[in-house]
Design a protein that fits this description.
Chain B: It comes from Elysia crispata. The complex is a heterodimer of chains A (213) and B (860). Chain A is of the alpha/beta class. Chain A has helices at residues 33-42, 86-90, 105-121, 145-154, 170-180, and strands at 17-27, 55-64, 67-76, 95-101, 127-133, 158-161. The longest helix of chain B has 44 residues, at 761-804. Classes of the chains: A alpha/beta (213), B alpha+beta (860).
Chain lengths: 213, 860
């Protein structure tokens, strides 16, 4: 399923660059990972989102200037019993969103552990974003914005408070990640690269390749 | 979510084992072509031959026959058994020892090739080496090691070891990668580098299962009964599957994953990871896929899981209206070895069926998309709408039918609103596909259907459709349009088919009856149509009708004809003018068109128009109470005509104009006759319009030489100063104005002679100053010009000399052109034509002594 269909022409001449990125969502159970994805991919929100079993996979394409960025989103299950599976999904990911619930300080602690794990075990240049979800429930806030912001800066993470319910910052956080991801031809997922090796022998230094610059 | 993907078919109902001891059980089996090998719990290997037969009704049955058996003496169950047909061997794992048996007589191989201490083994289906007469296997040992071997007919060659942190209990292998289940976790082992990637931990109560799915991809049993995919790189590229608890074995035949537990066989699709089928199967002990065939065994029976053909599965899904799943399955059917062509055909048909299901469900977006993608025969859709196919088209729906829909009346159960929705769908769909390749060859059907739909509900779109080369035939469209009162469009349709007469009949009827058709633009439209009509006979039939309705509009039939229309006898200007006699406004417009636009230079038309203008003016003058503006407009029109044209008969007009004392017109006419004196006299004496008089001079001197121009102004001045005119005092001021006018040009000498002696210098001061200054100015300008011309001449001369200048080499060989002797002194003569002589030989410096050419001695 993952590899089928879609705009995978490696260098569609007419439409600029197409980059494909693997992105994984991590975080404690019930912080709203699936809701964030559902909001981003389908623009929907379910008040009673079923808990994810194992992991789910979705794709969404966004346009950034002249680049088309295709996200392959792995939405992992937050429940503890699935924790051990997470490496299977974040391995090889170029981006991760670690989600916590601003009304629950425990989830923020858990998010910090996830960040640590990613820094230790995931790809060395993975882009990590921290999302404080459920920002619509500000009245029950237990994690201060400044605190999370400070933590994010300390660890050079992207940080936003989001709300899958109101759609606040949802697209923004994905776009911010897309902007931060390296878009040179040498990065991106390894699989769709095979067709464009024309001048890769000169090393990874791409002269901002292509005719449509 | 269920679908019937497989069917259980018994293969061996009761294995005839050596002894009928109740304890004897099947442990494992392998199938290789027609050979089936069974390993039992009491250490027997049994060989059967099985035969698959397809019955007339499509059902598959098996017959089996026992070929032989072998007792392995050790009294332990046969744990694993795999046939290697390339080697004619079977590999048997029993009592932790891996040995080889002959495939046919089941005798052990005498070389005694064996591996001891084996927990389990598996064959590498993606071997690194390519010797066809060897098999690569991976063996998990009791002592925390996995080993790779190459197995040949009689030997097992050890390739390499990888040491593990724990003992492996299950292994899978692909290329250089071994996937192993250790006692506490799964891991991926690169046997080249011995690098181990940890995957995830194994719970205590979980039976580890490793199933190779495809190149570099394995399926593992994970926590909470999940099926987890993992690539050789340790990455999961598909979402996990939810299995039931207590799985014992897993098999894969694209696109289905079959899993066995104590009570059920479950089938999941690898495409959406959802469960598709569950079959009760009690006490299953073994499940395996062998070259795409799946066999499952309980303690004593063996069954085959026969796949239901894709078409049947898809049809079942379609019957359940599960369109998405059916299409998903169909898309993947081409992986089952169908030829590309056959697949495309099959897929299109399924897509069309799917489209009609969506159509019946009123999911119009999906239906439209499927219709388009499957390049549906558009008539299939239109035929669902009663009366919308052209009557001339004979269409029968495809057999076997794509759907069970009778027509939209049935679908909508005569609910008008629903019916309307269906019609809107058809309209939008046809608009969308019109002109694309789907409609190729069916333009008639598409356009007729559109026409009918528009006529019914969207009349404003009809003219656009009809303007765009519609494929509609006349057939029942005529009736349809009449029935819905779209008469204007009917006319357009006739026009498109070249039936101008019928079209005109419809439109005139529409005009005369006053029937309401909001799309009909009215008489203008008919006039425009007639103006471009090539059939002139027909045109004349309607001209009367139109002109009687509106002269001004009607004359456009003649004046707005296409520019490239060939001349025709019926439309000769004479004929038309003659005809238009009855219609005074029309005839004027037509003549104006002939003269001003076509620029016809025929005296007849010019005179005619001038006379008509004149008559109009006279008529206005004669009627009392005419508004002054109307008269002025009429007269200025006349004057413009008289001034502009040179072709009319001046005398004729002049006579009438004089009669009516139309002085301004007379002046123009005199001008035409070059009788400027008379003209100017009228302007000055009769009209006292001095501005007009000066203007007259200007107009009539345009494009003539300055002398003629001066003469005109001179005439005007003489008129002003005419001593015979009794009220000449009044003309002194205009005369002075004229003299002082910067535009007017005079021969100053003549003027001085003409001026009356009595006029004071003071009066003439301005004129005189100007005259003197002009004269001075002219004289100076002429001088400057002369001097500049001289300078220029000098420059040209200099250039000329420079161009002629040339170096001359003097040496001994150079001789005088006259005396042919050498030069002794440094002086010599060169003529402009290059002839060189002694000084004394040059008798005349203006005449070349050799050629006799004369050089100009001209000195200014």
């Amino acid at each position: 399923m993952a590899s089928r269909g879609g705009p995978q022409r490696p260098n569609g001449a007419s439409q600029g660059k197409i980059c494909q990125f693997k992105l994984v969502l991590l975080g404690e159970s019930a912080v709203g990972k699936s809701s964030l994805v559902l909001r981003f991919v389908k623009g929907q929100f379910h008040e009673y989102q079923e808990s994810t079993i194992g992991a789910a996979f979705l794709t969404q394409t966004v346009c950034l200037d002249d680049t088309t960025v295709k996200f392959e989103i792995w939405d992992t299950a937050g429940q503890e019993r699935y924790h051990s599976l997470a490496p299977m999904y974040y391995r090889g990911a170029q981006a991760a969103i670690v989600v916590y619930d601003i009304t629950n300080p425990d989830t923020f602690g858990r998010a910090k552990t996830w960040v640590k794990e990613l820094q230790r075990q995931a790809s060395p240049n993975i882009v990590i974003a921290l999302a404080g979800n459920k920002a619509d429930l500000a009245s029950k806030r237990m994690v201060e914005f400044d605190e999370a912001q400070a933590y994010a800066e300390e660890n050079s993470l992207l940080f936003m408070e989001t709300s899958a319910k109101t759609a606040m910052n949802v697209n923004d956080i994905f776009l911010a990640i897309a902007k931060k991801l390296p878009k040179s031809e040498t990065s991106g997922t390894p699989q769709p690269r095979q067709g464009v090796r024309l001048n890769n022998e000169q090393g990874g230094q791409q002269s901002e390749g292509g005719c449509c610059k | 979510m269920s679908i019937k993907a497989f069917e259980l078919v018994p293969v061996i109902e009761r294995v005839k084992l050596m002894s009928d001891k109740a304890k004897t059980q099947i442990e494992c089996l392998d199938v290789c072509g027609k050979n089936m090998y069974i390993g039992t719990s009491d250490c027997f290997v049994v060989h059967y031959s099985i035969d698959e037969k397809t019955q007339a009704n499509g059902r598959i049955t098996y017959t089996s026959e026992k070929q032989g058996h072998k007792y392995l003496v050790v009294k332990k169950p046969v744990a694993q058994l795999r046939a290697a047909s390339a080697l004619n061997r079977i590999m048997v794992l029993c009592d932790n020892t891996l040995t080889l048996l002959n495939m046919f007589d089941l005798e052990p191989i005498v070389t005694g090739a064996k591996i001891k201490g084996v927990v389990c083994f598996c064959i590498n289906d993606n071997p690194v080496r390519t010797n066809p007469f060897s098999v690569e296997i991976c063996v998990a040992l009791k002592r925390k090691t996995v080993q790779l071997y190459t197995v040949t007919e009689d030997r097992m060659m050890h390739l390499r070891d990888v040491t593990l942190p724990e003992q492996a209990v299950a292994v899978g292998v692909d290329g250089v990668t071994v996937c192993a289940a250790l006692t506490s976790q799964y891991c991926m082992i690169n046997t080249d580098s011995s690098y181990i990637t940890d995957l995830f931990p194994i719970d205590d109560n979980l039976k580890p299962i490793i199933k190779r799915i495809s190149k570099e991809e394995f399926l593992l049993s994970g926590p909470s009964a999940l099926g987890i995919f993992a690539t050789s790189a340790g990455v999961s590229q598909r979402p996990p599957m939810q299995w039931s608890d207590g799985l014992t074995a897993v098999s894969f035949v694209h696109p289905y994953i079959v899993a066995l537990n104590d009570e059920f066989i479950t089938v999941h699709s690898i495409l959406d990871q959802q469960q598709k089928q569950a079959m009760p199967f009690i006490s299953g002990v073994f499940l395996g896929d062998f070259d795409g065939r799946i066999f499952v065994a309980s303690g004593r029976e063996i069954y085959s899981l026969v796949p239901i053909p894709f078409e049947k599965q898809i049809q079942a899904l379609l019957a359940d209206k599960r369109v998405q799943e059916a299409l998903e399955l169909a898309k993947n059917a081409n992986k089952t070895g169908m030829s590309r062509e056959k697949f495309v055909k099959m897929f299109k048909r399924i897509q069309q069926q799917a489209a009609f299901i969506e159509f019946a469900e009123k999911n119009f977006d999906e239906a439209g998309q499927h219709f388009k993608e499957s390049a549906i025969d558009i008539r299939e859709i239109i035929s669902l709408y009663p009366h919308y196919l052209p009557s001339s088209v004979n269409f029968t729906r495809s057999v076997p039918p794509l759907h069970e829909i009778a027509d939209i009346n049935q679908l909508s159960r005569s609910n008008e609103e629903t019916k309307l929705a269906y019609k809107v769908f058809l309209r939008e769909f046809l608009e969308d596909i019109r002109g694309t390749s789907i409609t190729h060859g069916y333009k008639l059907e598409v356009d007729v259907a559109l026409l009918k739909l528009y006529a019914e509900s969207c009349p404003e779109k009809l003219p656009e459709l009809l303007a765009d080369d519609p494929g509609c035939d006349l057939g029942d469209c005529v009736n349809w349009l009449e029935r819905h009162g779209r008469l204007h469009s009917l006319g357009l349709l006739y026009q498109h088919h070249g039936e101008s007469e019928k079209a005109l009949a419809v439109w005139t009827k529409l005009m005369d009856s006053g029937a309401k058709d909001p799309s009909f633009p009215g008489l203008d439209f008919i006039v425009l149509f007639l103006a471009s009509l090539t059939n002139h006979e027909l045109l004349w039939k309607y001209v009367d009708w139109v002109l009687e309705k509106d002269e001004e509009l009607g004359v456009k039939i003649f004046t707005e004809r296409p520019a490239n229309e060939p001349q025709s006898e019926r439309l000769r200007p004479e004929t038309v003018v003659d005809y238009l006699h009855r219609f005074p406004i029309a005839v004027i417009t037509y003549l104006e068109y002939l003269i001003f636009q076509r620029r016809l230079e025929k005296e007849k038309y010019h005179t005619h128009l001038a006379v008509l203008y004149l008559e109009a003016v006279i008529k206005l003058m004669d009627t009392n109470g005419t508004k002054k503006e109307d008269l002025d407009i009429a007269r200025s029109k006349l004057r413009h005509m008289l001034q502009m044209s040179n072709l009319y008969r001046v005398q004729l007009i002049l006579g009438k104009a004089k009669e009516k004392e139309m002085h301004a017109e007379c002046a123009i006419l005199y001008g035409k006759l070059e009788e400027h004196d008379k003209a100017l006299r009228i302007l000055v004496h009769k009209l006292k319009d001095f501005g007009a008089a000066e203007n007259y001079c200007q107009v009539n001197s345009r494009g003539k030489d300055p002398a003629a121009c001066k003469r005109l102004y001179h005439i005007l001045l003489s008129v002003y100063l005419d001593p015979t005119y009794e009220r000449r005092d009044t003309l002194v001021a205009p005369a002075m104005d004229l003299l002082n006018n910067a535009d007017a040009e005079f021969d100053n000498v003549k003027i001085l002679q003409l001026l009356p002696e009595s006029w004071s210098v003071g009066l003439l001061g301005q004129f005189l100053t100007r005259a003197v200054r002009t004269s001075m100015h002219n004289s100076r300008m002429t001088r400057i010009e002369r001097m500049m011309a001289r300078g220029e001449n000098l420059q040209v001369k200099q250039t000329f000399i420079e161009m002629q200048r040339d170096a001359i080499v003097m040496n001994e060989e150079r001789v005088c052109a006259v005396c042919n002797r050498a030069f002794s002194d440094p002086t010599f003569v060169r003529y402009p034509n290059g002839v060189v002589t002694h000084v004394h030989c040059a008798k005349n410096k203006y005449i070349c002594p050799v050629t006799g050419k004369l050089f100009s001695a001209d000195k200014r």
